[in-house]
Amino acid sequence: MTDPAAVLEALRLELGDAVVTDPARLEAARGDKSGHRSDAPPLAIVDARSIEDVQATMRIATRTRTPVVTRGAGTGLAGAALATTGEIVLSTLAMDRVIEIDEDDLLAVVQPGILNGRFNDLLGERGLWFAPDPASRAISTVGGNIATGAGGLLCAKYGVTRDAVLGLTVVLSDGRVIRTGHRSVKGVTGLDLTALMVGSEGLLGIVVEAIVRIRRRIEGTVATIASYFPDAASAARAASAVSAAGVQPAVMELMDARSLAAVDALLGTTMGAAGAAHLVVQTDGPAAASEASSALAIIESFGGTAELTTDPAEGERLLAVRRAMHPAMERLGTTLIEDVSVPRSALPAMFAAIADVERRFGVTIPTVAHAGDGNLHPNFIFDGDVVPDHIWEAADALFTAALALGGTLTGEHGIGILKRRWLQDELGADQVDLQRGIKAVFDPLGILNPGKVFPPAE
Amino acid sequence: MTDPAAVLEALRLELGDAVVTDPARLEAARGDKSGHRSDAPPLAIVDARSIEDVQATMRIATRTRTPVVTRGAGTGLAGAALATTGEIVLSTLAMDRVIEIDEDDLLAVVQPGILNGRFNDLLGERGLWFAPDPASRAISTVGGNIATGAGGLLCAKYGVTRDAVLGLTVVLSDGRVIRTGHRSVKGVTGLDLTALMVGSEGLLGIVVEAIVRIRRRIEGTVATIASYFPDAASAARAASAVSAAGVQPAVMELMDARSLAAVDALLGTTMGAAGAAHLVVQTDGPAAASEASSALAIIESFGGTAELTTDPAEGERLLAVRRAMHPAMERLGTTLIEDVSVPRSALPAMFAAIADVERRFGVTIPTVAHAGDGNLHPNFIFDGDVVPDHIWEAADALFTAALALGGTLTGEHGIGILKRRWLQDELGADQVDLQRGIKAVFDPLGILNPGKVFPPAE
Asked: Which Pfam families does this UniProt record tie to the protein (chains A, B) (predicted)?
C-alpha cells in the first residue's frame, strides 16, 4: 500500500474540492445507524459528483492499493459502510438526481444518492411510486437499498428490492464502467449481474446509476386495522392466520410489549396501556375492503381487540408508530439489531424462540416484525461501542433458531461486520468459497470494502 | 481428456442402468425445439434418478475432464442443451417429483424434471398455481424454466422466473452440493447465488431441487378480448396504449398476419380472414371487468374490431391459438426464433424495424409478441440444419434495432449457441470478461456446457 499522504495528494490533484478531510465528517464515517463504530477515522472522503469522479477515485485506489468504502446516507444497520484507518470513503450522497421518469414503461433512472422518501415524493406528483419502502425512507438512499437489498414494509405484496431493479451502471474496482440489465421487463442475456449486485454490500463495484421499476399509485380505499393482543405469540398466530387465509396485506407489522413501551417513551403515546402486543394491518387495491373485513374477523377470533379505519391520515399515523421504532431503540443504548427472516408460518415459533433466549441469557429483546413476510427485528440493547459477550451469545442462539426454522440471518439489512461471524453457518463452507471467488473476479486486489461480509481469513 | 470408452465404463460401473447409449436417444440429444442440431451424437446419457446420481456423474466428469450438458425435456429454443461428440448428457427429466407443497407459506419444493403443466395441474387441485408460464408448458420442465430464465405469457403482471425462485440445491462441477437461498420471502445473506443461477444455462452447476413461490388461484371473472387490426403496427400501438393507460392485463399477445396464417394452417382455423393482426387481452383479479372495459375502448379507438368474453372455455380457446404458434412454425421449416425484448412503449417501433428488415433482406418474419412486457418472437424460417448467411445478417440487423431501442437480445429463451455471436454487442467486452471469470469460479475445468453462451475463444 502507498503512503497515505501520497494517496491524499493524488486524490486532491485529480478531484480537488471533492476530497474532504474535515475531522467531523471523517468521525461520522466511522459509524452507521447500528450505533457501532470502527476503531479509527478513515483517510478521506470523496464526495463524488459524477461517474467520472467515481472512476477517478477507483483508478487512484487501484494504483495505490488503497481500500475504498462506498457510502450513502450512513443509515445501514449492519456496519457495512463503516470506514477505518487508511480507507477512502467514496460517498455517493451528492449524486442524488432523478435522471428520468418514464410513465409509459414504468421505470425511472436514478443516481444512487437520492433519498427513498424524496424519490417517492417526486414520483407521487405524477401518481407513481417506488415499492421498496424501508422504515428509514426519509433518511436512506436508493443506492443503499440496492447495496443491502433493503426491503421494508411492503415486500410481501410488492416485492423485494431485487425485483425492482432492472439495470445498473457500475464502476469496477479499477475504474472501468459496465452497464448491466436493460430497460425492458424481461431480459436473460448472460449471467444476471444486476441481481448479483443487489445486496452485494460494496464488495463488487460501485453502483452509480440504476434503472428501477416504478408503479402506478394504487387507487381506492386503504383500510388500516390497529389491534392489541395479550402477548406477542397470539399476535403472531393471528398474523400467520391472516396470510394463510389468502388475505394479502400491503403492510402487516407486529410490535411486542417492550417495543410499544419504547415508542411510547419517544412519542408520548400510551399504546402500552392498551395491550402487550400490537398488530397493524393495511390493505389496499380493489379488494381492500373485503380483505380488511376478513383480516378483522381473524384478528378478533385470535383474541385481538381491533379497530378499523379507512381514513388515510389515521392510517398513516398508525404506521408512523412503526417507523418510530428505530429512533426509540437508539434512545435506549447501542443496539445490535437482528434481522432474521423465517417462513411466515414460523412466526409464532420464532417469537417463542425469542422469549426462550430472553430467559436463558437474562436479556430483554424488544422485537418488531414485518409479519406479512416473516421478517423480524429483535433488538439487543447495551451500553458502549463494544458488543458484550453475553449479547453475542444470545444473538447466536437466536440465529440458530431462525436457521432451524428454514429462515435466514438477514432479511434486508445485510451482513456487514455485525453478522459475518454467522455467514458460514447459513451458507456452508463451499458456498462461502464460491462467493469469495466471485468477489475476487470483481476485485482482484481486495480493495472494495475489505473485512465486510466475509469473516477475516484465519 | 480420458479415453471415451474409459469414461463410459466408469459411468456404468457407478450408475448402472441409468447410463443410456441407445442410438435413438443419443440422436435426440443432438437437437432441441429450435430445430438446430449438433454435428454428432454425444457419448452417453445419464438418466439421473437422484441427487446422488448427479453427484456421481459430476465426480466422474471432473476426474476424466469430460464435458457435461445438462438437459431437461429438450424444448429449448436457443440450442443451450445440444450435445455433441464426447459429451455426457445429464438428464434430469426423471427427477420429476413435487417434494412439498406448503399452502401457508405459498412455496413448493420440486425436482427439476417436473413439467410446468403437470406441476400446475397438481397445484390447481389445491387452488394454487405457479406463475412462470411458457407457451410450451405442456412439454417443458420447471428446471428448464430456471436454467433459461424462461418467462412466458404472464410476466408483466406476475413476474419473471427469477422472482419465483426462492432457493436452489445445486450440484457443482466436482460433485459437491450447495444450497442457496431460503424458504422465507426475504433474505440477503451474502451474494445472491440463487438469482445468479437463474438463467445460467448449465454453465455454473446442475439444479437438482428448487424452492419456488406459488400463488393462490386468482378468484373472480377472467375477461378475454380478441381483436383484429389491419396491420401489426396498429395492434402494437393499441397494446402500448393499453399498458400506458394503467391497465395491467394478465395476458396480452399479439400475432401478425404471417403467424395467423401459419396457425390457421395447423389448426384449420380462419383467423387470417378476419384481419391482418390479432391482439388477445386477458384481465383477471378484482378489477378484471373494469380493466377489460378500458382495454376494449382503447382497442376500438385504435381501429381494432374486438369482442369480449367472460366465458372461461372461450378465453382458454383464444389462448390455445397463441400456444399453437411454435408447432405451427415447426411445420414451415427450421426456425431461428428470435426473442428480443424492448420497453413496452417501443413495441410499435420494433414492429416497424421488423418490417424494414423483411424488405431489406427479402425474408418473411412471422412475429408474435408478449405485448404486455415488450417481448417479441420474430421467426426466421429456412430449410435444413444450417442457418443461411442472409438469415444471420437479417437477424443481426434485427438485434441491432432491439438494442438501439433499449432492449435485449433475449427476453426468455437464453443465449445458447444461437445468440452467442451477439453476446458482447449487448454486454460489452468488460462485462463478458467478468461473466467468464464467474464461470471459471464455478467450473475451473470448463466441463459444464462448454461452447454455450460465450463465443468460442479466438
From this structure: FAD-oxidase_C (PF02913), FAD_binding_4 (PF01565)
CB neighbour list of residue A437: distance below 8 Å, 6 or more residues apart: B441, B442
- Using CA atoms, how far residue B446 sits from A73, B251, B434, in Å, is 42, 40, 15
B102 CB near a chain A CB, below 8 Å? yes
Fold for the domain defined by B219-325: Alpha-Beta Plaits (3.30.70)
Strand partners, A115: A141
Architecture of domain A223-404: 3-Layer(aba) Sandwich (3.40)
Domain A98-216 annotated CATH 3.40.720.10:
no
Beta strands across the sheet bearing A367-370: A305-309, A223-229, A277-283, A251-256, A367-370, A375-382, A334-337
Alpha-helical regions (H) of A333-445: 347-361, 389-404, 423-427, 429-442
Which range among A104-108, A168-172, A244-248 shows the weakest confidence by mean pLDDT? A244-248
pLDDT per residue rounded down to tens, chain B (458 residues): 579 999 999 999 999 999 999 999 999 999 999 888 999 999 999 999 999 999 999 999 999 999 999 999 999 999 999 999 999 999 999 999 999 999 989 999 999 999 999 999 999 999 999 999 888 889 999 999 999 998 777 887 888 899 999 999 999 999 999 999 999 888 999 999 999 999 999 999 999 999 999 999 988 899 999 999 999 999 999 999 998 888 999 999 999 999 999 999 999 988 888 889 999 999 998 889 999 999 999 999 999 999 999 998 889 888 888 888 888 988 888 888 899 999 999 999 999 999 999 999 999 999 999 998 899 999 998 888 788 999 999 999 999 999 999 999 999 999 999 999 999 999 999 999 999 999 999 999 999 999 999 998 75
**Shortest Cα distance, chain B CAs vs residue A265, angstroms:** 31
Q: What span, in angstroms and rounded, lies between the C-alpha atoms of B8 and A185?
A: 44
Residues of A (235-274) whose Cβ lies below 8 Å from B: 240, 243-244, 246
- What residues 385-404 of chain B have any CB closer than 8 A to a CB of chain A? none
Which ranges of A268-337 would DSSP assign to H, the alpha helix? 288-301, 312-323, 325-332
Q: ipTM greater than 0.85, yes or no?
A: yes
Asked if residue A13 lies in contact with residue A64, where contact means CB atoms within 8 angstroms, the answer is: no
Indicate if the pLDDT at residue A426 is higher than 90: yes
Using CA coordinates, name the residue in chain A closest to B148: A188
Q: Identify which of B186, B409, B423 has the shortest CB distance to residue A155.
A: B186
* B422 CB burial (10 A radius; 0-12, 13-18, 19+): buried
B159–A104 C-beta distance less than 8 A: no
Measured between CB atoms, which of B185, B286, B375 is closest to A373? B185
Label residues B268-283 b or e (16+ Cβ within 10 Å = b). Answer: eeebbeebbbbbbbbb
The burial of B13, by beta-carbon neighbours within 10 Å (0-12 exposed, 13-18 middle, 19 or more buried), is given as exposed
Where do the domains of chain A lie? 4-91, 98-216, 223-404
**Best residue of B100, B189, B410 to probe chain A, by most A CBs closer than 10 Å:** B189
Beta carbons of B413 and A342 less than 8 Å apart: no
Residues A447/A448/A451/A453 CA torsion (nearest 10 deg)? -150
| pLDDT tens-place string over residues B178-214 | 999 999 888 999 999 999 999 999 999 999 999 999 9
* Nearest CA among B414, B430, B303 for reference residue B32: B414
